Each structure stands twice: as C-alpha cells, then as structure tokens.
Amino acid sequence: xxxxxxxxxxxxxxxxxxxxxxxxxxxxxxxxxxxxxxxxxxxxxxxxxxxxxxxxxxxxxxxxxxxxxxxxxxxxxxxxxxxxxxxxxxxxxxxxxxxxxxxxxxxxxxxxxxxxxxxxxxxxxxxxxxxxxxxxxxxxxxxxxxxxxxxxxxxxxxxxxxxxxxxxxxxxxxxxxxxxxxxxxxxxxxxxxxxxxxxxxxxxxxxxxxxxxxxxxxxxxxxxxxxxxxxxxxxxxxxxxxxxxxxxxxxxxxxxxxxxxxxxxxxxxxxxxxxxxxxxxxxxxxxxxxxxxxxxxxxxxxxxxxxxxxxxxxxxxxxxxxxxxxxxxxxxxxxxxxxxxxxxxxxxxxxxxxxxxxxxxxxxxxxxxxxxxxxxxxxxxxxxxxxxxxxxxxxxxxx
Length: 399
Prior knowledge:
The chain has 399 residues and is an all-alpha fold. It is built from 15 helices and two strands. Helix 10 crosses helix 14 (363-374).
C-alpha cells in the first residue's frame, strides 16, 4: 500500500499540475522539485524586487516625492515578503499531514476491506484532479482577468484624488500606472493570486476526497482514545491548512493597516471585521470534517447502547460478587483481586464512548488555530494604543 503520488513518486497535494510539468521540462522528468528556499527566493526576486527597482528610478521608493511611496505602503511588502513565502512553505506543512492521513485511512482499519475498492476510487479521483493541468490554466486566466478587471485606482474617486503614488499618477483627471504599477498589475499581483488560488483548489479537492471517504461504511470505534472513532489524524491533517489561511490573514491585516494609516480609519471600528474574518477562516478550515459527523453520531449512539448494557452487566456481577456475599474476608479478598482494576478500566473505556466528539478535532486544537489566525492582527493594536500605553495599563493591573 502506498500513499497517493504521481508517476515520479511525488506525493502530497502540491505535486502535479501545470507547474510540475514546467519544472520537469526545465530540470528533467526524474529531477527533484526546486527546493522551497529557491522557490521563495525566486518569487521575491520576480514579484517584489522589480517594484523596488522601478520605484527607485521613478523617485517613488521613499521620501516625499509622491503622496504614497512604496516603502510607506504595507500591502505589497506583506503580500510578497510574508504571504507568498507562507504559501510556498505550506508544501512542507500540508503535504506530510495529508499523506499521513491518507495512509492511515487505508491501513488503520477505519476503512474496512469491503470498502477498499471505493476508497481507492476516491483516491484516484483526488490524484486525477491534482495532476490535471486544466485547473492551473483556469487559475492563471482568472488571476490575470481578476487583476485587470479590478485594477487598483481605476473607478475610485478617492484614489483619483491622490496626486501620485508608487503605483499610479493622475494627469488631467485620469489615472495612469507607473512602471512599477504596471509590473504589479501584469506580474506581481496575478502571480500572487495564482499561488493563492492553487492552494485553494487543493483545499477543495482534498475536501472532496474527504466527502467521498465519509460516504463509505467506516469502521469507527467509539472506544478509540482519540475520541473521534479513529479519525483523529484526519482532523490534524485538516488543521494543517491553517498556514494557507494565515497567509490570507496577513494580507487582510496589511489591508486594514493601510486603511487605518492612510485613510484615517480606527482600530476600534475594525474589530468586528477582524473577528468575523477569523471566525470565517476557522469555520472554512473545519467544514470538511463535518462530513463525518453523521457516522460519528451513529457510532457514539451505538456505543452508548452496547457499552452501557455491558457496563450494567459488569456492575451487576461486581455487586453480586463483592457486596451481596456474606463473608468477613471481603476486604482482604478485594485488595488481592483484579476486579476493582477491571471496573476502573471499563469506566475509562465507557468515558471514551461518552466523550466521543461529533467532529474529529479537539477544542484545544480549534483554540490554537484561532490564536494563530489572530496573530497577524495583533500589531494593529499599536495603531490604537502606544507601547507606553500598553505598559502603563499592564503596570496598573499589577499594582
């Protein structure tokens, strides 16, 4: 039994597709993929550095030559120096998690032998969707079309009122892109969206795979110590996608910071938006796990019936043996017996059944994931309170 992979042995969701074919054409069919460090360096050189160089030649990199120089605009720096590296590093986080979950589903016994053919069919559909070049072609078209359709500065009277920036200038009441602005519109912006949309596509096909698996007759065990019938590793794999949504959160944070700094918005006015975004991200990440809720519910209900009945029989036998017997040596015999230990072990087993979750993820995991997605928004607090104010408030709380 092997994990899902392509013909060259690569496995995981990041393998396959148009960009894999391009790498093989550049390096040979048997060559390894470009290292993540090389991919990150290349994207920084192609997406971010030209903006710096072109802005430098246009005298819009720093200073007061324009209303908004490049170094005063947080959005492109966060997008290309933080979000893009996070999306590329996602390969190292998500691929091991999903391949392990796939392998465990196949070998742990959760998917019984009778359902293995259907499981293999679901895996093959995942592999075909991942390896197809057409989704990448569509993503590229959508990314360039979306960027061109919503070109920054066009149709926005507030932006047209700005005299100049690193991206655009106004002449005779119309907006014109600078060379750096054209590079952003034609290269940097679309390529960022391509990288992002590719991971969203892989998130969708993994969710579709989990849906197909959830339609199988799974052998879920309510006594399993992961309290998820044996699906705990699926929840762990699903939460690995947090790194993709962390990139989303960093870009959203930079956009809100831009509004606060450049347009006079207040952090207090943005708190509801931030909370809503984080909640939406957390829900989206965990939605595919809801596919298993029905089977988990049925397994828990059956477990409570079966193990509850057995618990009564065990308790009755214990009562008959140690409570109703007429002997003065009960205490000494009980100390030497393994019966109390058996009762305690069974109680722990029944507690597992009773505590079984309807979604294969822990509350602690959800809280940690929520904290991770909130982290990019924490620096925004400094726009409302200075460090001195925060230290004073902390000191007041401690005194």
